[in-house]
Amino acid sequence: MNINALKLSLLTYFQHLSLYDYLAFGWLCLTFLILIFLAILVAKKSSAFALLIIIVSLLFLGIAPFFIYQKLNTTLRKTETTITLLKKLNFSSSLILETTITNQSKKDFNLCILHASIFKADENISNIKAYLYQLKPLANQSIIIKEFIPQESTLEYRIVFDDFDYSGDINATLKAECY
User: Fold this and answer.
1) Nearest Cα to 69, choosing from 25, 32, 105, 120?
2) Which ranges does the record mark as transmembrane (predicted)?
C-alpha cells in the first residue's frame, strides 16, 4: 500500500468514526493519562520505575490505535472479500480483477475502499521470498465505491489494471474497508 492509499484510508476512517470508535479512543487517552499520573506519583520514590511507566505508556499510546482499528474493523465493519477472476487480457496490456464484497456486519454500508495488489507468484519459492513479493507488488490500486450494501448482501465489482506488462504468474490480494 503506497502513501496515497494510506492517506485515503486514514482520512476516510476519521470522517466515518462511530460511537464505538470515540469510546475506544477515549479509553485510550484516559488510560494514557492515568499512566502518566501514576508515573508522576511514583517519581518521588523511584525515578527509574517512573521512567519505565512513562516509556510503557508512550509505547501503549503508539501501538494501541492499530489494535483498536483492527478490532473495530473485525467486529463492527466486518466484510469478506473474494477474488472471482484474475485474467490478463491477450489483446491489450490490461489485467482484470473481478471481486465480490460481502457485508457481514450488523449495519449497512454506504462507502467502501478497495485496496488491490498484484504481485509475482511462483510455486517454487520460500515463504520469505513470497512475503517479500507481497511487500513490493507489481501494481496497486485503491478504489472508492459509493454504493449501498445492505446487511448480508454481496456486491460484485471489477478492477482494471491498465498498462500491466508483466507476463509471468501472478497473484492478487484484496482488502476492503467499508463504512
Assistant:
1) 25
2) 20-42, 49-69
Q: Does the pLDDT value for residue 83 go beyond 80? A: yes
Task: Check residue 1 and give its pLDDT.
Answer: 55
Per-residue pLDDT band at 117 (split at 50, 70, 90): very high
Q: Which residues pair with 114 in a beta bridge?
A: 143, 176
Decide if 158 contacts 97 (C-beta within 8 A): yes
Domain count, the chain: 2
pTM for this structure?
A: 0.79
CATH number of domain containing 92: 2.60.40.1620
89 HSE (CA, 13 A, CB side): 12
In this structure, the answer to whether residues 48 and 98 fall within a common structural domain is: no
Give, in degrees to the nearest 5, the angle at Cα 118 between 117 and 124.
130
CA dist 22 and 140 (Å) reads 31
Q: What cell does 2 get?
A: 503506497
pLDDT at position 166 is: 87
> How remote is the C-alpha of 14 from its chain's centroid?
14
